[in-house]
Write a structure and sequence with these properties.
- This protein is 35% helix and 26% strand.
- The chain folds into 2 domains: 74 residues, Helix Hairpins; 135 residues, Cupredoxins -  blue copper proteins (Immunoglobulin-like, Sandwich), CATH 2.60.40.420.
- The radius of gyration is 24 Å and the shape is elongated.
- It has 230 residues and is α+β, with helices and mostly antiparallel strands.
- The protein has a 5-stranded mixed beta sheet with strand order 3-2-1-5-8, with no helix packed on it. It has a 5-stranded mixed beta sheet with strand order 4-10-9-6-7, covered by helices on one side.
- Helix 1 packs antiparallel against helix 3.
- One of its GO terms (cellular component) is mitochondrial inner membrane.
């Protein structure tokens, strides 16, 4: 959960998000080093009247500043491509959930069960209980078992939406007439918040996403109660 004045990312709750955080730190370190070098060169050029005649026309320096950026780009590209392929991996999911975007709420269908589905609306501000977050809490949470591969099929019924949960490293466009899929593993129990990340109309800001990861035994109890109510 993000908090006021937070500068970094939310704490990772999935292996993919942990990899993304490591890659962010790796890339940011390279940016810091390049920025420091450029700043030093600018200050040195501005603050000195001396000129090195060997720098004005030097084949060696041209070779270095041609090869060095290429090496830096490779050091950034290789881990980036690795994470890209990791995010596309879907290996034997234990549970499949279809998330449908509507104006302006989400509906979830647990396709491994015969009749388990519900709509998820934002809780109005006047109905919030102590401890709930304004504009982020829903009347029905998407409950999943922790430490289990979950596949999410994402689509929309009217306009473009985007199903995004930052702490899980999830962001998938919901396109009408098209079924996109993504997968994740919640590595710890908790409640993880997200929002629609595609401008979808007047109430775009009011269709939050709440994913609750619980132990498998608790998930089985929850699904049994939901099926009984259905």
């Amino acid at each position: 959960m993000a908090h006021p004045t937070q500068l970094g990312f939310q704490d990772a709750a999935s292996p993919v998000m942990e990899e993304l955080l490591h890659f962010h730190d790796h890339a940011l370190m390279i940016v810091f080093l390049i920025s420091t070098l450029v700043l030093y060169i600018i200050i040195a050029m501005v603050s000195t009247k001396l000129t090195n005649k060997y720098i004005l026309d030097s084949q060696e320096i041209e070779i270095v500043w041609t090869i060095l950026p290429a090496v830096i780009l490779v050091l950034i590209a290789l881990p980036s491509l690795r994470i890209l392929y990791l995010m596309d991996e879907i290996n034997d999911p234990h549970l499949t959930i279809k998330a449908m975007g509507h104006q302006w709420y989400w509906s979830y269908e647990y396709t491994d069960y015969e009749n388990l589905g519900f709509d998820s609306y934002m809780v109005p501000t006047q109905d919030l209980t102590p401890g709930q977050f304004r504009l982020l809490e829903t009347d029905h949470r998407m409950v999943i078992p922790m430490e289990s591969p979950i596949r999410v099929l994402v689509s929309a019924e009217d306009v473009l939406h985007s199903w995004a949960v930052p702490s899980l490293g999830m962001k998938m466009d919901a396109v009408p007439g098209r079924l996109n899929q993504t997968a994740f593993i919640a590595s710890r129990p908790g409640v993880f918040y997200g929002q629609c990340s595609e401008i979808c109309g007047a109430n775009h800001s009011f269709m939050p996403i709440v994913v609750e990861a619980v132990p498998l035994e608790h998930f089985e109890n929850w699904s049994s109660l939901m099926l009984e109510d259905a």
